[in-house]
Amino acid sequence: MPRDLATRVAAFFCASALSGAFSGLLAAGLSKMDGVGGYSGWRWIFLIEGLITVVLGVLTFFLLVDSPEISTKWLDQDEIRYLVIQEFIKEGGKFKEEDKKTSWKDVGDMMRNWRIYLLSYIMLCQSACNYGLFAIT
Question: Where's the Major facilitator superfamily (MFS) profile domain (predicted)?
Answer without folding.
Answer: 1-137
